[in-house]
């Protein structure tokens, strides 16, 4: 989780505006930066970082030599960044996951860029060559963006909606269902999607832990996580966290922050909603939704 903030063309003094960016400081404990966009009046980015990938060179606004006209702030993880870099032969200048957005945008434009991303994310991308600002988020809006009409004049685009299959979905190869209901194929497809959903989240370079309520969702996530962590030879044991009390999430996150070194926390949160929402999802689409909801 990071805090991202941007200001485009406000008349209010920058030092006043920047104080509003400090309200999201809790989202990024590792570092923060404010940067003016040179040559543009009152155009500024603010960023609070929780470093998950490439701690050294992943600071934002992300800018690279090859595209000096692009400025990017984003929150989240792009699970398929390595696959995309390889697939399109990009030459990355950092190891941070979000750099792939800059290469994809330059090569394919904003719509295809967004459609190719597999992850949970929200981003603000400024193109000073074309004088354009793009604000976007992942298909399911895992990481939302808020706009304050006073300071932000850009429109948020829905790049693709839940009923469109994003282009990266082809990466998970599943058995096709024969006509009629084949329970074994359905079960094995769910297992594949579920395991892949957990596996791709292991890209975090910080210590991973897991919330464990003892219910079905979090137990499944924890069991799969422990199994895959062994397979991937993560150099530490997975810590799990449970608590019974009111306002549970707050207490758990405070405890984790103060008493443990786990930084990236898995949970089964959202699985119920995904499974119950059968009105908008077909039976085949369900595992894919479940997959995304096994969230970091
Ligand atoms: N943490 C984030 O939201 C951004 C990026 N994935 C990083 O590791 O810095």
TrEMBL record:
Q: What is this protein called?
A: Glutamine-dependent asparagine synthetase
- Quote the PANTHER family the UniProt record gives: ASPARAGINE SYNTHETASE, ASPARAGINE SYNTHETASE [GLUTAMINE-HYDROLYZING]
GO BP, one example? asparagine biosynthetic process
What Gene Ontology cellular-component terms does the record carry?
cytosol
The species is Dissostichus mawsoni
Q: Does the keyword ATP-binding apply?
A: yes
Q: Which Pfam families does its entry note?
A: Asn_synthase, GATase_7
Pathway field? Amino-acid biosynthesis; L-asparagine biosynthesis; L-asparagine from L-aspartate (L-Gln route): step 1/1
Q: Name one GO molecular function term.
A: ATP binding
InterPro entries per the UniProt record, alphabetical: Asn_synthase (IPR001962), Asn_Synthetase (IPR050795), AsnB_N (IPR033738), GATase_2_dom (IPR017932), Ntn_hydrolases_N (IPR029055), Rossmann-like_a/b/a_fold (IPR014729)
């Amino acid at each position: 989780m990071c805090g991202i903030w941007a200001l485009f063309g406000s008349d209010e003094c920058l030092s006043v505006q920047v104080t509003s960016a400090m309200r999201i400081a809790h989202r990024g404990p590792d570092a923060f930066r404010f940067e003016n966009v040179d040559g543009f009046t009152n155009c500024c980015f603010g960023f609070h970082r929780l470093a998950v990938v490439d701690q050294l060179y992943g600071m934002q606004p992300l800018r690279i030599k090859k595209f000096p006209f692009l400025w990017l702030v984003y929150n989240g993880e792009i699970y398929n960044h390595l696959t995309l870099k390889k697939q399109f032969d990009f030459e990355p200048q950092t190891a941070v996951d979000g750099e792939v957005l800059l290469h994809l945008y330059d090569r394919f434009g904003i719509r295809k860029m967004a459609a190719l991303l597999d992850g949970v994310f929200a981003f603000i991308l400024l193109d000073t060559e074309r004088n354009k600002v793009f604000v976007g988020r992942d298909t399911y809006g895992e990481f939302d963006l808020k706009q304050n009409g006073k300071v932000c004049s850009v429109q948020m685009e829905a790049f693709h909606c839940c009923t469109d299959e994003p282009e990266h979905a082809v990466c998970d190869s599943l058995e096709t269902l024969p006509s009629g209901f084949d329970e074994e194929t359905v079960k094995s497809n769910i297992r594949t999607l579920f395991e892949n959903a957990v596996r791709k989240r292991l890209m975090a370079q910080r210590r991973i832990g897991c919330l464990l309520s003892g219910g079905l969702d979090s137990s499944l996530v924890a069991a799969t996580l422990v199994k895959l962590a062994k397979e991937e030879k993560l150099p530490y044991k997975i810590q799990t966290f449970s608590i019974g009390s009111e306002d549970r999430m707050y207490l758990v996150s405070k405890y984790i922050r103060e008493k443990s070194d786990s930084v990236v926390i898995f949970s089964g949160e959202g699985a119920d909603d995904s499974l119950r929402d059968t009105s908008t999802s077909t039976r085949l689409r369900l595992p894919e939704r479940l997959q995304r909801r096994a969230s970091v």
